[in-house]
Amino acid sequence: MIAQHLLRDIFGFEDFRGHQSAIIQRILRGQHALVLMPTGGGKSLCYQIPALALSRATDADSQLTIVLSPLIALMKDQVDALVARRVRATFINSSLERHEREERYRALRDGQYEILYVTPERFRKPEFREVLGARRIGLLAVDEAHCISQWGHDFRPDYTRVREIRQFLGDPTTIALTATATRAVQQDIIQQLGLSDADVEIFHQGIERPNLSLDVAEVWGDDDKLQHLKRVFERNPGTGIVYFTLIKTLYRFSDLFQDKRLPHLVYHGELARSARRAVQDQFINEEDHLVLATNAFGMGIDKPDIRFVVHADLPGSLESYYQEIGRAGRDGLPSECLLLYDQSDLATQMEFLRWSNPDVDFYARLYDFLCHERESIHAFGLEWLREKLHARQKHDRRLETALGMLDRYGALEGSLHPLRIDRMKELPSALTDADALEAKLQADQAKLLSLVQYVRTEDDRRAFLHQYFCG
Description:
Blueprint (H helix, E strand, L loop, with lengths): L1 H8 L10 H9 L3 E5 L8 H12 L6 E6 L3 H13 L4 E3 L6 H12 L5 E4 L7 H7 L3 E7 L19 H7 L4 E6 L4 H10 L7 E5 L7 E7 L2 H15 L3 E5 L3 H13 L5 E3 L5 H13 L4 E4 L12 E6 L6 H8 L9 E7 L1 H13 L4 H13 L1 H17 L7 H11 L3 E5 L2 E6 L9 H23 L4 H10 L1
Parallel strand pairs: 1-6, 1-7, 2-4, 2-5, 3-4, 5-6, 8-13, 9-11, 9-12, 10-11, 12-13
Antiparallel strand pairs: 14-15
Helix pairs in contact: 1-3, 2-3, 13-17, 14-15
């Protein structure tokens, strides 16, 4: 009954949708759940309402809900929305100044918050762990739970510490949530949480978004892509996203759009944080914007009236594709999702697979340089190190991947931007296991193959997606 009151009084809805009520009741009974729900399906309510029920119960101590989230920008948006509804929520992450962080630590210790959003990396901080020791944790929510699994499309090594985090928190009731997870990823999520199949009920709301049209067009070159894009804009006046794989391709099309006097925004991960935020705010808060973007323009884009999502390049997997088209038509009205397939784009994705899967030898050579050539690295920078590792292959990006993995596993201390290494720890076992690294590469190749099969299928595309994710 309390859940229904919270739904109406705090969030302004009269009725739950889909599996929401059953999920919330299970969590309030202290039982674990894995929730698979399409983008825009209301996943957040599945932990926000139990969080408020636990914190406001009169027969128990004030209980805190911890939400693990991979994205700093998404945390701020969600906390702002909750605070506007008079919910005592906050986030603690690297975007805060020291005095802001210390002030929130004090408030957290004093029991002033009901919901706290953090990244898994925050649990590396002794002062944070000390503050949490003063609170009773009633619920752990793991958002974007596919990040836990190395077989998922957006694996984050820090998420592999979720089992340890759960133990530190006293093994609280846990809910994991995602829009995309194959059966193998679902099982891996449960295992990585330190739970068994018997502990967790899986709520799968399916992947059906009947208001989205799913189309693929085979194209040859930029001119053909541009003609298809113009026809999409003519069919769908209003707000839309065009996704590109490479920043240089994005800017090439931006120039073409300027020549055609097609107004648009540009968004990618190498923009300054303030610039990214300005573009995102403009897109969300104003009407009828077209944005050309890489997949950095992703989670946290909560705009109901996106009328089209076009992939101008081949995405890296069906998981990425499905998550990105899920941003269209959240208002339930018809929206177009078009994938433009140029066979030459496949070569780009195959190269990305190689870059994102360094082998044991590469990790070993990099580790040796970081341990023994630190002075040269500090003096001459990233490009010197790249030349030593790649010789003449200056476009190779395995170095960025490997450095990122070493950082996420906590194997290095220092800064990546600029590259300055203070101390190296032992090379993680996950990066010295040749069989495991090869299995990861083969799994990524299989995902790319499934995407190509989706592109080329002559059967019902919805049925293909259903078989891939639910079959």
